[in-house]
Amino acid sequence: MTQFRIGCSGFYNRHWKGIFYPDKLPQRLWFDHYAENFNTLELNVTFYKFPSEAMLNVWYQKSPTDFMFSVKAPRLITHLKKFNDCKSLIDDFYLACSNGLQEKLGYLLFQLPPSIVYSEEKFMQILSLVNTNFRHVIEFRNETWWRQDVYDALAQKGITFCSVSHPKMPDLIIANTDNIYVRNHGVPDMFYSDYSPEKLQALKNEIELKNVSKAYVYFNNTAGIHGILNAGHFRDLTNLI
């Protein structure tokens, strides 16, 4: 049976007050409330600000014992330098995540920009920088990467191919390792669109058909209220809490 980790790509959202967060709950307790309802959080703040061990250790201390974090790699690595001359930066990222989150570190997410199209040279460059002592997931934003040889090469390194619900990307659940990682960005309106109960049920069914050990499912349609509501509905479908 697949073990589910379900959450959102971020938790600090004023739109959720009165919808998910009780009206009188102070903002300093929002994460506590989130962590009572979900068992994982995808940290996107690290995309914009390079994380420190101290910063991540705050999340470690605040979270429940069985809670897990996925951490998005800084855009300095993936979007600005595009993996060029950044081995020391990646090593620093590994060190901060490992020491800061310890056993609560789930996946390290590397999201590539749409401008990076598939090439064997670029692919080999990325693979050469990966430390296989960590769990990785790579999210591609150009459909040229949806190909079997990419799935297989990632699997040989133990890297999970990120399945996405995205307006411009293939709507496929890829299981190239024993884990599945899904990011639901909102379709057709990225970050905004709601997922129907039927769509969420279909997603659960498709994941379970893959017979993987674990599935990390995150909702990034958080520009309004839909992300947290969809995450809650999907959690209920899995009888997680």
3D structure, described in words:
The chain is of the alpha/beta class. The protein has one domain (3-237): Protein of unknown function UPF0759 (TIM Barrel, Alpha-Beta Barrel). Helices cover 36% and strands 18% of the residues. The chain contains nine helices and nine strands. The chain has helices spanning 30-37, 45-48, 53-62, 75-80, 87-101, 120-129, 148-156, 197-209, 226-237, and strands at 3-8, 40-43, 68-72, 105-111, 136-139, 159-161, 163-165, 179-184, 214-219. Strands 2-3-4-5-6 form a five-stranded parallel β-sheet. Strands 1-9-8-7 form a four-stranded parallel β-sheet, with helices on one face. Helix 8 (197-209) packs across helix 9 (226-237). The longest helix is centred in the middle third of the chain and has 15 residues, at 87-101. The model has no long low-confidence stretch (mean pLDDT 97).
